[in-house]
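A reminder from the course coordinator: this example appears on the midterm review sheet, so study it carefully.

Given structure:
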């Protein structure tokens, strides 16, 4: 985790799973995280871009991230129709409804069941 976000506050990375938040040090593509920073800023991330990403979701609320590219909701592939329309939220000093995902950001999405959604660029 420190290699990706060296300015983050130690011990401040949390993921969301059914039942609540838990502290973690491992970042997985497709998962979203709460990470605390003392100061605002930007971070360049090096490596191969993620242009195809399969994200496992569960019934209820999920904290996810997208691929390496900005994507509109119409670009998600949801073969089982699990995503509930109008329930994708980002965070910017409060929760905001959104129609697209930005690289490096986490988003809340609500699902009607367990399954996989796909981001293909």
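Designed residues:
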């Amino acid at each position: 985790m420190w290699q990706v976000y060296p300015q983050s506050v130690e011990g401040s990375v949390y993921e969301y799973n059914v039942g609540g938040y838990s502290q973690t040090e491992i970042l997985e593509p497709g998962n979203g995280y709460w990470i605390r920073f003392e100061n605002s800023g930007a971070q360049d991330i090096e490596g191969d871009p993620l242009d195809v990403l399969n994200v496992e979701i569960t019934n209820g609320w999920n904290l996810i991230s997208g691929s390496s590219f900005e994507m509109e909701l119409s670009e998600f592939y949801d073969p089982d129709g699990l995503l509930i329309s109008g329930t994708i939220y980002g965070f910017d000093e409060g929760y905001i409804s959104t129609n697209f995902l930005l690289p490096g950001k986490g988003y809340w999405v609500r699902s009607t069941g367990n399954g996989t959604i796909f981001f293909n660029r």
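The two ends are 26 Å apart (CA to CA). DSSP finds no helices and twelve strands in the chain.
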